Amino acid sequence: MLAARLHEYTEEMSEALSIDEVDRPTADTPDAVVVEVEGAGWCQTDNHIVEGMWAEYAPQPLPMTLGHENAGTVVDVGENVDIVDPGDQVICHPHVTCGTCRPCRLGEDMYCENARFPGLTTDGGFAEYLATNERAVIPLPEGVDPAEIAPHADAGITAYHAVKKAVDELNPGDHAVVIGVGGLGHIGLQCLDATSAAEITALDLKAEARDLAADLGAHHVVDPSSADVAAELDAITDGVGARQVLDFVGADVTTGYAPDITAAGGDHHIVGYGGHIHEPAQALVDGEFDYRGTLVGRYAELQELVALVERGDVALRTSRHDLGDINTVAERLEHGEIEGRAVVIP
Amino acid sequence: MLAARLHEYTEEMSEALSIDEVDRPTADTPDAVVVEVEGAGWCQTDNHIVEGMWAEYAPQPLPMTLGHENAGTVVDVGENVDIVDPGDQVICHPHVTCGTCRPCRLGEDMYCENARFPGLTTDGGFAEYLATNERAVIPLPEGVDPAEIAPHADAGITAYHAVKKAVDELNPGDHAVVIGVGGLGHIGLQCLDATSAAEITALDLKAEARDLAADLGAHHVVDPSSADVAAELDAITDGVGARQVLDFVGADVTTGYAPDITAAGGDHHIVGYGGHIHEPAQALVDGEFDYRGTLVGRYAELQELVALVERGDVALRTSRHDLGDINTVAERLEHGEIEGRAVVIP
Amino acid sequence: MLAARLHEYTEEMSEALSIDEVDRPTADTPDAVVVEVEGAGWCQTDNHIVEGMWAEYAPQPLPMTLGHENAGTVVDVGENVDIVDPGDQVICHPHVTCGTCRPCRLGEDMYCENARFPGLTTDGGFAEYLATNERAVIPLPEGVDPAEIAPHADAGITAYHAVKKAVDELNPGDHAVVIGVGGLGHIGLQCLDATSAAEITALDLKAEARDLAADLGAHHVVDPSSADVAAELDAITDGVGARQVLDFVGADVTTGYAPDITAAGGDHHIVGYGGHIHEPAQALVDGEFDYRGTLVGRYAELQELVALVERGDVALRTSRHDLGDINTVAERLEHGEIEGRAVVIP
Amino acid sequence: MLAARLHEYTEEMSEALSIDEVDRPTADTPDAVVVEVEGAGWCQTDNHIVEGMWAEYAPQPLPMTLGHENAGTVVDVGENVDIVDPGDQVICHPHVTCGTCRPCRLGEDMYCENARFPGLTTDGGFAEYLATNERAVIPLPEGVDPAEIAPHADAGITAYHAVKKAVDELNPGDHAVVIGVGGLGHIGLQCLDATSAAEITALDLKAEARDLAADLGAHHVVDPSSADVAAELDAITDGVGARQVLDFVGADVTTGYAPDITAAGGDHHIVGYGGHIHEPAQALVDGEFDYRGTLVGRYAELQELVALVERGDVALRTSRHDLGDINTVAERLEHGEIEGRAVVIP
Question: Is A45 a catalytic residue?
C-alpha cells in the first residue's frame, strides 16, 4: 500500500514526506484492529514532528508514516475484539493503550505506561491502512462521514480536553478567553459555548478568524495587533480578569498575557506550543494563577466529543486533499494559509 | 507606641527598619479590632518588601510598619464585633477583608476586592498594637501561646494552603516532593504527613534541614548539590515521577525540576519566589503538568491549621527576638542563618 | 403599612393569611437594608408553612408576615452599607447572614449559624417594606423588572443550586431526568440546558407541562400516568440509566423511581418535598446511587442565576396578583391551578 | 478439587454450603488467570447471599461456589497476560471486568457492563482454585501473607472506598462518625485516621468494639444502647454535627440517625445493609444532607489500600478456619460471634 513517510527531520516542508510503497498491516494480536483510512487530518504537530521538535520527547524510528487524526472502516480484527466488526466505521483515538497499567485503570489513558502513538512513535494514518487496537476505536454514529470527523481524533479531543478542564472552573457570568481561532481554537470555542454559560472573548491576529469566532459564539473579539490586550480584557471583565484562558497558540507573547489578564485563582491553559514561558515565580504567587499543560485527551472524552458532534454542537471546517499533495498541505499550514482543518484522503 | 518601620527600599538589611514612636491605633469602625501584639513572625517576604520587590504588585505608603504574622490579645473592638471581646487571645489572618464582594462570598477571601494587608499595604504588627477587623481574627484554643503560633498567620497558612491543594490530588502510595525544608517547608511537610498517606521526598541543600525532614516524616531525603535530582526521583518513584511537588524555594533551578520529576498530570506548586520559570510550552504539553501559584491561604484554612496545631500534628520551630533587634533578624535570614522561624516580641 | 400575616397554622388555604396594618421597618443596624417590595413570589413552601410543616424545623413567632421571594427598591440603609444606595433595584437572597461564622467564611451561607430567613423565621415580603441586610441584596442589571425576577430569589436559586450540583457530574451525552415541570422544574430545565450538553428527559402528569418542557429544551418527555417510567428510561438511555435525576416533586412515588432509573454511581436530587423515601439500604448499595438533599442556594449562586437571566438563558412564566388576593393564590396553587409562578404586588 | 457450594437459598446457616468435588478451572481465554486460593474471607454478604437477598439484584446459577475475598498464588495464565506470571502472589479484586466499556474507560470498573463477580454471579474462592482475569489481580508486596490480606479484597476495599469519598469532604477539625466497628468498620476507621485529620467518633453496641475503636484512633466512642446518640453528637461536635457519617451497619435505626447527627451539607454513607431508609423528603431538604450508596470499590482503590497495608497504616484482625468448618463460620457470624474477619483456608 502507499504511505507518506518521514525519512529525516527537515525545516523544508515542501520535502517533508515521501510517498512509499509499504506492507499492509495485519491483525496479528488478539486485540488488533486494522482500519482502512478514509480521512487523516494534518496537524500543526505534524510540522513540528517533521522539524524534529518531538525527537527529545518521543522515540521515532525513521522512516515512519505520519498521521495521528484518523477515521475509516474496520477491515480486520484480532480474535478477542468485541466492540467492533469488519465493516464498522470508526474514529481512532491516537493513543493505543494497554488497559492494565495504573493510569489506564484510573481512566487516564493518555498516561498509559505501555502505549504507542501511531503517527508519532509508530506508523500512522497517512496510508491506506492503519494498525491500531480495540481500546483505541470508537464506532461512529449513523451517517457521520469519516473524512469529516477525522480531525477530532487529535485536534478535536485536544481542544475538548482543555475546555473541559476550564469549564469545571467556570460559573455563569465568568469570563473565558480563547487565544487563537484556528484548527483547534475554533473547535474549543464551540465546546466552551456548548458546555458553559461563560462570557467568551476571542483573540486572533486575522480578521477572518475573529469573524469566525463571533459566528461561533464569542461575545467579544480582540485584535492583539491593534489593541492593548490587558486594557481590553480589563474593560471587558470589569477589572476582574478572565477566570480561564485557553491558549491555542503557546507563543512567548501569548503565555506572557497570563499575569495581566488572568483573574486571581484562574488558569492559563497551554494547548498550542512552540514558544516559552518566561515569568517570575512571584507573578504566579501574586495572582495565584496556574499554567496548565494539555496533552491530547482521554478516550472517554473523545466519546463525549462525538456526542457533541452528533448533537450538532460542534462543526468542523475542513478541506480535502489527496495523499500525493501532502507536502503542499504541510507547506501551506506552515505559512498560515489553511483555513479550518486539512484532511488527507489516502 | 513603638513600631519598626520601613522608610525606603534598600538591599542593606542591617538598615532595613527604624524603630519609631507612632500613634496607637483605635477601634474607629464598627468592625474594628485592636490587638496588643505578643508575637510577630519575620518572614522572607519581609526581606523582599524591604528590597522593593513588592512595590510593583502592591501599593506601599512609606513609611510603613512591617509585620504580617501576628498574634496577641484583643484590647478594643468596634460596636458590631461579635466573635471576640477584649481580653481574648487571637491569631490574625493577614488579609483584612470586606465580606460582601463576590470573592468573599465564595469563601475566596484572599481575592477580596476591598482588602488591606497589614504589613504589606498598611501598618503591620512589628509594633505594640495592630489595627485589624472582625473578619481577620481567630480566637486561640486554651493554652496556646500567641508568640508560638504567630508565624502560622502567614508562613503556616501559606504552607497549609499549598499542601491542601496538593493533598486533593494525592492517593495513598503516590509520591510528593517538598523542595526546601525551611520556615515554610517544615510546616508544609508536617501538614502533608498529617492529612495524606503519600510517600514524601524532601530536598534541601543543608544537612540539618534534611535531618529535620526525616524527623518530621519524610520517607526519603535528597541533597540536590550531590545527587542528580531527576535520577534520584526516578529511582524513588519507580519511574512514575512525583504527582505533586511543593516548591518552597521558587528559584530558577527548582522550577526547572518540573519536567524531569513531575508525573504525567502532576502539579508543581510555586510557593517560594525570587526566581523565574523558563520552560518551553511543549514541556508542559508533553508531560501535561501544571505550574500552580500559591497566595497565602483562606481564613477558613487558618482555622483548619489551628485545629492541626491543637491536635499536635504540626509543631513550629521558633526563636524569639526583641523589637530592637529586628534588623539583625532581617540580616541573619538573608544569610540563611535562622533555623525555623524568628518571632519578634514587641 | 399593610402585610399578609399568618396567625395560626391551618389546612384551609382560603383563610391562610390576614392583611394587617403593621409598623414599617427601619434601618436600625449598621448593615441594615430596607427594601420597598415591588414583587414577592408565592411558593409551594408558603403552603407548607401555613400548614405547619416547617414548625418542627424552624421557629416561627406568629403572627408573622410570609414572603421569601422578594425584589424591589432600596429605601433606607445602615451607616456601614457600601454595595447599595437608596434608589437601587435589588433582588433579595432569602437568607440574612452574619458573614463571620465558619459556614459563611466557606461561602456556605445557607448554613450560617446566625441567620434569619424572612418569611420563614421573621417577617417577610408580602408587605410594603422588607427589612434585610447588605449581605442579602444583589443589585439588578439595568432594565430588569423586580416583579419579573422576584421568584428567582427562592424558586430560581433552589432549582439552580440543584442543577449546578447535577451538572458537575454530567458529561456530554449523559442523561438527566427532570421530574415535575412546574414553578421550580421549568427553571431547572432551562438552567440544565444552558450549562450542560446532557440529554434531558422530563416527566410530568400534565400535558401542558410536558409541552412546556419540550419548548424549553427537553429531548424526551414522559407521562408517568400512562407509561412504565423504568422501561421508558431504559429505552431512552440504552439501558444505562440517568446519571442525574432532579426530583422537583419529592413524593413517595417519585423518590421510589431512583433504584430503577438512576445509573450506577448516579444521584437522585430531592428538591421538592412532601413525601418520603422508603428504600432498602441494599438498593443504594447495589446501584451505588445517592439521595441528595437540596436547601435553597448560595448568595453567589443567585448572582450566577441573575447572569443567566441577563444572558437570556432563563425565562420565568409569571402571573401578577394584588396583596388582597393572596389567599386565592394560596388556594389555586394547592389545587395545581397556577401555571408558572404567582407574584404578589404589595 | 473441593469447593464450598450453595445449592439452595436457606435461613439455616448450619446447612448453608456443601463441600463438593468439582473440576479445576483452566486458563482458557487470552486474559485468563487461575489462582490457587490461600485465603478467602467470609463476609456478611455471604450470609445475605445464602438467604437469597441478592437473587433479585444479581443472577446466581445454583449450585455456585461462594467466596469473593480471595488471595493466593497464580498457577496458570492466558497467552496475553503481562502483569503476572505463575508463582506470583496476588490479591483478587472481586470484579472481573472487560476494560473496553465506557465505565471501564472512565476507571469506574465496578460499573463495568460486561463483568462477572466470582462468588456472587459465578464460582468464587471457597475452593482450591479460582478463575479470574488479568484486570482483576494485584501483585502482593514482598512478604505479605495472602491469608492475612484476603479480606481486603472486599471488606477492605468497600470500607476504603466509602472512607475515600468521605475524606474528600473532611477538613482538619471536622467531625466524622463511624457506625459499627466490626469487620468493615475497624478497617474504615484506620483508613480514616491514616488519610485525614478529622475528629472521629465511633458507635458500637459492644464494649470490645468500642475499645478496639479507641485503640485504632477514635477520639470519642459512644454506646448507642445507653446514650442519646443525637445529644452525644451534639455535645461532641459543639452543635455543628458530623460532616461525614460512615454507616457500616445499615439498619433502620442507624439510617435514622442522619437528620439528627449529620451537619448541614453532610453525607451519610450507606455501607452496611439489611435495613431500610424511612425519612421524609423534607428532612433531606432542611439539613441538605445526602444518603450515599457504596458498592465495593475500584481496582485502583485496592492498589491504594495495599499501599496503606504496606505502610503499616491498616492492620486486619483475622481468624483462620478450614474449608470443612465453613458453615460454622457462617453461623457464628450470624450470631455476632466473630471478632475481626474470618478467613477460610481451602
Answer: yes
